[in-house]
Amino acid sequence: MQDYITDGVTLKDIEQSLFRHMQKEYGQLLQQLLEDIDHTLAEKRDKKRYALKDKRMIRMQTMFGEVEIKRNYYFDREKQEYCKLAHYFGTKWPFFCKFKRVFAR
Q1: 68 membership: H or E segment, kind and range
Q2: Which are the contacts of 26, defined by CB distance < 8 A and separation ≥ 6?
Q3: Distance between CA 66 and CA 52 in Å, rounded?
């Protein structure tokens, strides 16, 4: 009985294992959420102005670890330059954008 107690899994081991598992799960959830948002942005964009050109993989460091996301890149026909729709968000987080001028009217 004493060997079983001293050689068994500790509470710290359980906590660390649970923490790593939850980090992985939340990282996957965040990845899916960001890709869904990017897909929605692609559907709602002003298609006459923004031509979908490429889908690229980016890596982001998050509190859940590194997350890889496939993100759309566009060609702005008015400005004649390549862009991410993220440039039109009012936030500082580089993945999102505000879409004020991007929605088709």
Answers
A1: strand 65-76
A2: 64
A3: 26
Using DSSP, state whether 98 is helix, strand or coil.
coil
Task: Name the CA dihedral angle for 98, 47, 44, 53, rounded to a multiple of 10 degrees.
Answer: -80
First and final CA of the chain: distance in angstroms? Answer: 74
Residue-wise pLDDT for 20-63, tens only, equals 999 999 999 999 988 888 888 888 888 898 899 988 888 888 88
Copy the structure tokens of residue 23. 């980090």
Helix H or strand E segment including 6: helix 2-7
The phi, psi pair for 2, rounded to 5°, reads -60, -40
What is the C-alpha separation between 51 and 45, in angstroms, rounded? Answer: 9
Predicted TM-score (pTM) of this structure? 0.68
